[in-house]
């Protein structure tokens, strides 16, 4: 599953480019550093593919020795995914099952294609199942454009071969205990493709249309420096929050739902500025310094042995006491330093962007000093 090519009008980013068409071309100039969450999701999909193939008796190689993020939870989730699909298969008559199937919807979106986790065709129903490993945001199948694009692509392959009447789209998200299914008739899906998908995809491909802000902004590469998003949030920020008593209850009620968007935008902007500063950009009045960090033990077993030798209990079950509690147990900093000499370290803090007035010394921000993508820090 690694090394896959992604479509510009991809299914996974479709909520964004359908609602904000010009963001498609705007994001082209921004690098994609990926993330640990994405890497974990990729690993989970590889394991799901293996488990499902095994359940269906399809030859497969166990990928677990090569999965960096493999753990017991991922094993459980993959088994649950395979069991769920097996139930669909066993309940159908002579079903056709396709795993990690490439599908194309380029009839409506230029060069549009994607990979559906699982497609099951049986009894006049086209089932499309998508595994989601994330647990931060619950994903719903209803009006889910990613799922609708996968379904369209599947219809392109099989509509002329099978008597398909309806489409069942399911999000399987075990870490949220979420199984969300949406049913559409084939005709309603084609209607959406002609009336909504095609015109929006054409605008997006041409870099045209109107910039719009919404939930889809959180997945946009340009979210930190998008002028439209800045305008929307700066308009909100113009309210006199310093004197909330001057706002009426109705005004406060109108503002409250937008606060999280304002805070999110501010956080995105700060993260972007830090990333750019670490690559050599300068922002007047700001500098990059080493952030604060906490001391930690270098060898918890050795620490415990040292404390036990003093006839003291180093644990607050099931864990060893933290530095502050251990200092108190040993009778103060001097005894702590003497007893645990060489067993405590203070790692370097992560870089942070602060005003020039901060007393900490600026650190070297040459891009060559950072071997890892900043976005992953």
Q: How is this structure best described in words?
A:
The protein has helices at residues 14-19, 23-26, 36-55, 72-91, 145-158, 186-205, 227-237, 249-278, 300-308, 323-329, 333-339; strands at residues 96-104, 113-122, 125-131, 166-173, 178-185, 286-290, 296-297, 315-316, 319-320, 344-345, 351-355. The chain is of the alpha+beta class. Among the domains are: 14-205, Alpha-Beta Complex (Lambda Exonuclease, Chain A); 296-345, no CATH class. The strands form four sheets. Strands 1-2-3-4-5 form a five-stranded mixed sheet. α3 crosses α4 (72-91), α5 packs across α6 and α7 crosses α8. The protein starts with 13 loop residues before the first helix and ends in a 22-residue tail after the last strand. Residues 367-377 have low confidence and may be disordered.
The total beta strand count reads: 11
Distance between the termini: 25 Å
Q: Roughly what fraction of the amino acids lie in strands?
A: 15-25%
Largest β-sheet summary: 5 strands, mixed
Secondary-structure-derived class: alpha+beta
Mean pLDDT, as a whole number? Answer: 88
CATH fold descriptor of the domain at 14-205: Lambda Exonuclease, Chain A
- Shape annotation: globular
Give the helix proportion (percent range).
25-40%
Q: How many separate helices? A: 11
Rg from Cα: 26 Å
CATH class of the domain at 14-205: Alpha Beta
**Quaternary status:** single chain
Poorly predicted tracts of residues: 367-377
**Topology as H/E string?**
HHHHEEEHEEHHHEEHEEHHEE
Q: From the coordinates shown, what is the CATH architecture of the domain at 14-205?
A: Alpha-Beta Complex
């Amino acid at each position: 599953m690694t090394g896959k090519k992604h479509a510009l009008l991809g299914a996974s980013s479709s909520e964004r480019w359908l609602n904000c068409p010009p963001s498609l071309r705007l994001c082209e100039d921004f690098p994609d550093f990926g993330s640990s969450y994405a890497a974990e999701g990729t690993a989970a999909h590889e394991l799901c593919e293996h488990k499902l193939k095994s359940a269906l008796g399809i030859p497969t190689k166990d990928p677990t020795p090569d999965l960096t993020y493999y753990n017991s939870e991922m094993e459980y989730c993959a088994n649950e995914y395979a069991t769920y699909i097996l139930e669909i298969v066993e309940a159908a008559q002579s079903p056709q099952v396709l795993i990690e199937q490439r599908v194309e919807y380029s009839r409506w979106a230029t060069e549009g294609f994607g990979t559906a986790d699982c497609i099951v065709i049986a009894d006049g129903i086209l089932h499309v199942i998508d595994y989601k490993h994330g647990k931060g945001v619950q994903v719903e199948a209803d009006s889910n454009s990613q799922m609708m694009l996968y379904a369209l692509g599947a219809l392109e392959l099989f509509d002329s071969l099978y008597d398909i009447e309806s489409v069942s789209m399911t999000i399987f998200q075990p870490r949220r205990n979420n199984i969300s299914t949406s049913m559409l008739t084939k005709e309603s899906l084609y209607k959406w493709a002609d009336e909504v998908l095609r015109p929006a995809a054409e605008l997006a491909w041409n870099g045209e249309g109107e910039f719009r802000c919404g939930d889809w902004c959180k997945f946009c590469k340009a979210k930190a420096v998008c002028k439209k998003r800045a305008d929307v949030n700066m308009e909100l920020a113009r309210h006199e929050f310093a004197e909330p008593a001057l706002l009426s209850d109705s005004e406060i009620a109108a503002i409250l739902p937008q606060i999280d968007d304002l805070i999110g935008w501010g956080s995105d902007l700060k993260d972007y500025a830090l990333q750019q500063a670490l690559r050599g950009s300068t922002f007047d009045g700001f500098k990059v310094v080493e952030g604060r960090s906490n001391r930690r033990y270098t060898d918890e077993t050795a620490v415990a042995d040292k404390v036990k030798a003093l006839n003291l209990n180093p644990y607050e079950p099931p864990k060893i006491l933290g530095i502050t509690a251990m200092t108190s147990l040993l009778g103060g900093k001097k005894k702590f330093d003497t007893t645990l000499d060489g067993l405590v370290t203070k790692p370097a803090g992560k870089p942070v962007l602060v005003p020039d007035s901060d007393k900490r010394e600026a650190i070297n921000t040459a891009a060559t000093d950072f071997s890892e993508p900043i976005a992953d820090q």
